[in-house]
């Protein structure tokens, strides 16, 4: 009854319920894009497809930016994974893959599955979609777009603090290749932004 395809469907439903109302750029479609990207990369890099997909769906569960009680969220997630009969050793691998994904933790994932999910998540933070998500996040957290005298804590500053550095933090060749175009697009965007701002 619980083959891996059905388990992945159940995981998708689980995160849909948790994230579909999100307006910070971490909504269901972010998870869907990260999952699709992780699946492609897992095939290219020869990693475990099931672990990569499950971990990609679940990678934002327990993120301190999004959950007031991260530990509780992770405990519930584990209970859920047990309830759909995912094997203990696979649950361990999924948890290991997601625990170091977050940029703010500054950690290097230990497994290839963790590296792939982190790369897929970072690719979704750059390019046109990354730009859209940055301003959505800033708006949701009450940050301004830009402030020339106090640029700190604005969405534009986020490009310089994080987004422009992501390209060089990627682990896999497949991700680095995709990142090139997205990185360039952000540079073009910032040039144009300041051209218009300074008119
Ligand atoms: Ni994410």
TrEMBL record:
CDD domains: HDc. PROSITE patterns: HD. InterPro entries: HD/PDEase_dom, HD_domain. Residues 27-126 form the HD domain. Gene3D superfamilies: 1.20.58.1910, HD-domain/PDEase-like. It comes from the Bacteria. This is HD domain-containing protein. It comes from Cerasibacillus terrae.
